[in-house]
Amino acid sequence: MKQFDEINKVVLAYSGGLDTSTIIPWLKENYDCEVYAFVADVGQGEEELIGIEEKAIASGAKQCVVADLKDAFVQDIIYPTLKTGAIYEDGYLLGTALARPIIAKAMVDYALEINADSLCHGCTGKGNDQVRFESVFAAFAPHLNVIAPWRVWSLKSREDCLDYLAQRNIKCSASAEKIYSRDANAWHISHEGGELENPWSAPTEAVWTWTKEPRFTPDEPRQIKLTIENGEIIGIDGKAMSPLECLNQLNSIGSEYGVGRLDIVENRLVGMKSRGCYETPGGAIMLKAIKGLEQLVYDRDSLNFRQKLGHDFATLLYDGKWFTPTCQSILAAASQLAKSLTGEVVAEVYKGQVTINQKQSVNSLYAESFATFGNDDVYDQSHAEGFIRLFSLSSRIAALKKQGSAH
Predict the structure, then answer these.
(1) Cα-to-chain-centroid distance, residue 52
(2) Which of 42, 94, 237, 369 is found 20 to 30 A from 60 (Cα to Cα)?
(3) In the Cβ-directed half-sphere of 262, how many Cα atoms lie within 13 Å?
(4) Catalytic residue among 71, 76, 181, 312
(5) Catalytic residue among 15, 21, 41, 100
(6) Beta bridge partners of 1
C-alpha cells in the first residue's frame, strides 16, 4: 500500500453505492483518519439521494455534504460542449465524461475549504474515471494526497465488499445479485456488465431504464420547436426555459419516443475496449437541433472547422482534459462560431429517431433565389465554366505533362 506523509482528513467522492460505502470504514481502519463524504448532485435523480447523508454517517463518515451542481453542470459544461458538436467514436455523447470535471472541481473546493489533506475516489484501476478525477486534482490541488482504494486494497469483487461490511455490522442495501453497473446524471445514464460483457449478446430490455423500446412508442410522431440563441437552446414550443429545464423537458419527450439509445464498444483511455449501453434522449434531440441550424448558418469552411473542433474536443473531454489550455481554446473557438447560430428548428421524434424537418435563422446563408431549380435572375450558369477550369487547373497541367504537351 502506498505510504503518505500525513493522512488526517480525507474527502471522499461519495455516491452511496456499495464501493464508496465500503471505502469509508476502510479509510478509517487503514489511515486512522476522519472521512468527509462529498456528494455531487448532477441530476442523477432524487431516488439516489434520499437518505444519502444518513447512509454515509452510518458507514462511519464524520460529515456528508450534498452539493447541488445540476444547473451549473448543464449551463457551464453541457451547453458549451454542444457548441463543439463533440461525439466520441461516432456515437457516444460523453455523458459520464461531461460530469467528471464539475464533480472533481467542486470536491477539491470543498477539501480546501475544510483544510483536508487528502482526496479519495472509488474509481477502478481499469476505467477512465480515475484519470478524469485525478487530472482535476492535479490541476487545482497538487499538494493533496490522492487515495484510490481499488488500486491498493485486497478486495477484488462485489461479494468481497459485501462481506467486508457484514463483518463490521454496517448495513448496506446493495446485494450480490446486482447485474449492471450504472451511472446517471442529467445528461444520460450508462449501463455496463451483465450480458453486455459479451459483444455477441444483444442487450435485453432489462438494460434500458430511461427510454421506451421504440416499437412500443406512440404511433404518431411528435413535433418539437426549439428556439436557439448563440448556439444555446433557450426555449421549447415557444416557452422560455433555463438550460436545465430544457434538458429535463427533452429527456421526458425523448424517453417517451425511444430516442437516444446507443450500444457501443469503445476504446478506453487505458487501452482496453469496453462495451456500454447509453441513453441520452434529450441530448440526442439537442445535438441534432443545433447541427440542423448549423446547416443554414455556417459556410463550408466554418462547418468544416467546427467538425474538426468537435472531433478533437471529444477525445480531450473523454480523456479528462477539460481544465487544460487546449480544451478551453476549443470551447472559445466554438463559442465564437456559435454567435451567429440563432434561429428556430422543428425536430420530429418518432420510433427512436430524431429528424430535423424545419429550420430558419436571420443569419441563414441559404438563398432560394440562388438554389432554385426554376428560373432565376441572380445566377449566370455560364460563369461555372471558368470556375471549373481554374479549380481543376492543377489536374489539367498534370495530365498535359504526362502527354508531353505542357511547357
Answers:
(1) 24
(2) 42
(3) 24
(4) 181
(5) 100
(6) none
CB 252 within 8 A of CB 245: no
Sheet (strand 189-193) strand order: 180-184, 189-193, 273-279, 261-267
Torsion of CA 220, 222, 223, 229, to 10 degrees: -160
Q: Parallel, antiparallel, or unpaired: how do β-strands 118-120 and 63-68 relate? A: unpaired
The three-class DSSP label of residue 187 is coil
Distance separating alpha carbons of residues 81 and 297, to the nearest angstrom:
19
| Residue found by looking up cell 430516442 in the block | 259
- Give the distance, in angstroms, between the CA of residue 227 and the centroid of all CA atoms in the same chain: 22
Q: Are 337 and 298 in contact (CB under 8 A)?
A: yes
Active site residue 100: yes
Catalytic residue among 129, 183, 275, 361: 129
Clarify whether 19 is annotated catalytic: yes
Closest CA to 98 of 321, 385, 265, 381: 321
- Dist CA 67 CA 111 (whole Å): 13
Q: Note the Cα 199 to chain centre separation in Å.
A: 23
Domains of the chain plus CATH, in order, are 9-178 (3.40.50.620), 182-298+341-360 (3.90.1260.10), 374-403 (no CATH)
**DSSP structure class, residue 215:** G
- 15, 19, 21, 255: the catalytic one is 19
Assessment of whether the complete model's pTM goes beyond 0.85? yes
Q: Is 183 helix (H, G, I), strand (E, B) or coil?
A: strand
Are 226 and 345 in contact by the 8 Å Cβ rule? The answer is yes
**181 catalytically annotated:** yes
The tens digit of pLDDT for each residue in 185-235 reads 999 999 999 999 999 999 999 999 999 999 999 999 999 999 999 999 999
- What is the reported pLDDT for 370? 61
Q: How far apart are CA 67 and CA 215, in angstroms?
A: 39
The pLDDT assigned to 179 comes to: 79
Q: Is 41 assigned a catalytic role?
A: no
Closest CA to 237 of 223, 249, 253, 225: 225
Contact of 51 with 215, CB cutoff 8 Å: no
Going by their DSSP bridges, the two strands 9-13 and 353-360 should be labelled as: unpaired
